[in-house]
Design a protein that fits this description.
Number of strands: 4
Distance between the termini: 108 Å
Length: about 130
């Protein structure tokens, strides 16, 4: 009897079938649309990402540091979004809804959909012409 170590030979896997699917698209510039969330132990740091974004993108991004969190380190968010939602509310969203599904070694790319409902009250014009 011969012992085999390592990968199986083609004869041993002749009854298997493989299907490989791929979605191929052009690399997007910019590589971030709305927000990046960096884990505390991510392989790339916030300073390096901010410098890269400054070179690649004209629209400004705001850096939000998440201090004393075991999972999250930093958030880079498109500044225009912070005109629609308060920074504190965005941080609450990230901590409550994103952090539980994130590892400290990850960098997550997040696309946001922020809807703002505006309601105003019309005032009667008390002066008539």
């Amino acid at each position: 009897m011969t012992e085999h170590s390592g990968a199986p030979t083609m004869a041993a896997v002749a009854n298997h079938r493989w299907t490989i699917s791929a979605e191929v698209m052009e690399y997007a510039i910019p590589p971030i649309r709305d927000m990046l969330i960096l884990g505390r132990n991510s392989p790339v740091g916030c300073i390096a990402l901010r410098r890269a974004l400054e070179l690649l993108i004209k629209s400004p991004y705001e850096h939000i540091e998440i201090p004393n969190d075991p999972v999250l380190s930093d958030v880079l968010v498109r500044s225009a979004l912070l005109r629609r939602v308060p920074k504190e509310e965005l941080i609450r969203f990230v901590l409550k809804d994103i952090r539980p599904m994130m590892g400290s070694e990850e960098v997550l790319h997040v696309t946001l959909e922020i809807k703002v409902q505006v309601q105003t009250r019309a005032h009667e014009d008390t002066q008539t012409g």
